[in-house]
Design goal:
7 strands; two-stranded antiparallel sheet
């Protein structure tokens, strides 16, 4: 009846596979959706990052990634969860000039288009975003 906890090495393989999911055609971010409040893949990736606890250099690389906007969004959300307020504002304010489109899944399961600068603004202004209470 013993429960074996996964190591960071075992989880990292899941994270790499999940990052590939971010880059496929069905890119989306959001919180929970549907009648059963199913978590989006974006929230599952946030949970994996919380389990792995990547170093700040890796997190900075996620945020500065210009090729994959959803990797950047993942890094921003994770930083908002774990970062110190001054560091969060310093890193995220520079992203207000990023106007790329993101697909956001609302609670009813419908999609809406928002831009990266709106996403960052929502992270900085709201206490609850993507159905997660932010510190």
């Amino acid at each position: 009846f013993f429960f074996k906890q996964k190591t960071a090495y075992e989880i990292s393989a899941c994270l790499v596979g999940s990052e590939m999911c971010i880059r496929d055609r069905r890119r989306v971010h959001g919180g929970t959706y549907g009648g059963m409040r199913k978590p989006s893949k974006f929230l599952c990736l946030i949970l994996k990052m919380l389990q792995l606890q990547p170093e700040m250099e890796i997190l900075h690389a996620f945020i500065q990634n210009k090729d994959y906007k959803y990797v950047r969004a993942l890094g921003c959300f994770y930083l908002r969860l774990i970062g110190k307020p001054q560091e969060v504002y310093e890193l995220l304010e520079s992203l207000f000039v990023d106007y790329r489109k993101l697909r956001f899944r609302k609670a009813d399961g419908q999609f809406e288009i928002i831009h990266m600068d709106e996403f960052v603004d929502n992270l900085l202004r709201y206490d609850v975003y993507c159905d997660i209470a932010l510190p």
